[in-house]
Amino acid sequence: MALNIYDSDNKYYVVGSKFDISQFNQPMVTERREKYSFPFGDAEIVQIAFSGIYIVYGDVMVRQSRLRVKSFDEPDMVELHFSLTGGGIMENYLTNKRLDIKANQHNIIYSPDFDGTAEFDTRNQHKFFEINFERSRFIDLTSESSMLLKSFAENIMNGRSVEISSENLPITLAMHSCINDIMNCHFTGGLKLLFLQSKCLELLALQAQAFEEAAKKTERPVLRAYDKERIHYAREYLLANANRPPSLAELAKTAGINEFKLKHGFKEVFKNTVFGYLSDYKLMKAKELLADNSKDIKSISDELGYSSVQHFSTAFSKKFGISPGKAR
Asked: How far apart are CA 192 and CA 182, in angstroms?
């Protein structure tokens, strides 16, 4: 892919080469290695294209810390980005997004067009590695995948410029090994194609796994003794108002705990969601009241706060596999 980079006199230079879209879909590997020397810096770039995948990596040394960069009308791609050494800040004026990737960090990015600035440390060499999947290819690969990748793919299908995570993650040893295998591939012909395809998919899987694990850690708040006490208080308040339950936000405010911690902490303590727990409680209470025979089914439904007898009957049947009438 080609970048137009502007110097302080607003003269632009082209870094990289435009690949014809047909080259991305051909069965064999097309490879280019190019060196550049400009007033603002030097670069050596390797570009590899095959079967809906475009790999680009290289070394960049800049003499001007802030550069204006533009990239338009390129193939629609999803980028697996790895900053190996050095680092930089990319600010896209089209999306008002700022991406800060430090050395030894990675992310997955979708940004069809770029018009903005790039900032680099002029004292250090910047080495980067990217794998770009053609948009439709990436969506096909992730269509039956994890919820995180599905959500990311949905944003892409809706044309949103997006990163898989707002936080970059460290590049693991397994990722470094995979990147080195790609950069030092000595196969030729069909074997090279198969090898590069497998390594690109392996790297995508490693990234997806890393972001999945990071998301799970974020979702698990550390519960202090005070938090647990507040969650137990929330439970008591919820059951005391089972016929007219508060919203999650109201319950969190009443318990004196934030909504996120209440939701995830409740599940950790009671092994159920807030309203899943409430539903189970109401249905167990209904079972007791049905056994009493002193109240008809409509009265029980009303007492427990169900909107209708039909709603109550459906929930009861789903829980116990039998209708309230037959249970009585």
From this structure: 10
CA–CA dist 262, 251 (Å, integer): 9
Amino acid letter for position 321: G
Task: Report pLDDT for 110.
Answer: 93
Query: Which stretch of DSSP H or E encloses residue 294?
Result: none
Rounded to 10 deg, the angle between the 248-255 and 259-270 helix axes is 90
pLDDT tens column, 62-97: 888 888 888 876 778 999 999 999 888 888 888 888
Task: Please calculate the CA angle 217-102-174 and round it to the nearest 5 degrees.
Answer: 60
Q: What angle do CA 291, 282, 241 make, to 5 degrees?
A: 125
- For 269, other C-beta atoms within 10 Å of its C-beta total 16
At residue 301, the pLDDT reads 87
Contact between 116 and 91 under an 8 Å Cβ cutoff? The reply is yes
What Cα–Cα distance (Å) separates residue 84 from each residue in 10, 135, 320? 29, 24, 57
Tokens standing for 314?
């459906």
| CB-based contact 159:110 (threshold 8 Å) | no
In sequence order, the β-bridge partners of residue 81 are 107, 130
Please state the pTM of the whole predicted model. Answer: 0.65
Distances 283 to 1, 233, 240 between C-alpha atoms, Å: 61, 21, 15
- Over residues 226-240, the pLDDT tens digits come to 888 999 999 999 989
Q: Per residue in 91-115, is it b (16+ CB within 10 Å) or e — as a string? A: bbeebeeebebebbbbbbbbbbebe
Tokens of 208: 């997806």
